[in-house]
Amino acid sequence: MPTAAPRVMTDRPTASPTGHEAALGPLxxxxxxxGRVFAVGTVEIAVFHTRGGGTYAVQAECPHRQGPxxxxxxxxxxxxxxxxARKFDLKTGAGLGxxxxxxxxxxxxxxxxxxxxxx
Length: 119
Prior knowledge:
The protein is mainly beta. It has one domain (32-118): 3-layer Sandwich (Rieske Iron-sulfur Protein), CATH 2.102.10. Helices cover 0% and strands 40% of the residues. It starts with 6 loop residues before the first strand and ends with a strand.
């Protein structure tokens, strides 16, 4: 049985000058092809680092049955929920089965590889 993706709690996120972003730390903490969950205040966000170098931030739980998306299989820019094999486009949040979608969050990387998410 696979182990759950580590959760990274950010109880005191560092706000950006605009006050709309939170610092999550370096991208290097997420191996390529995996996801991690970050808590920003009361919001849990799953951040994915694809094998192709893409980075995406979406809601942490599957809208179908609250499966932990960070534990799902990632292929390209698609994640598959580990509980019921529902697939989602990480770029848009669109459910590939058509019945439910994910909330996405703007994520940016600094030149030094630090991740900032807009909540």
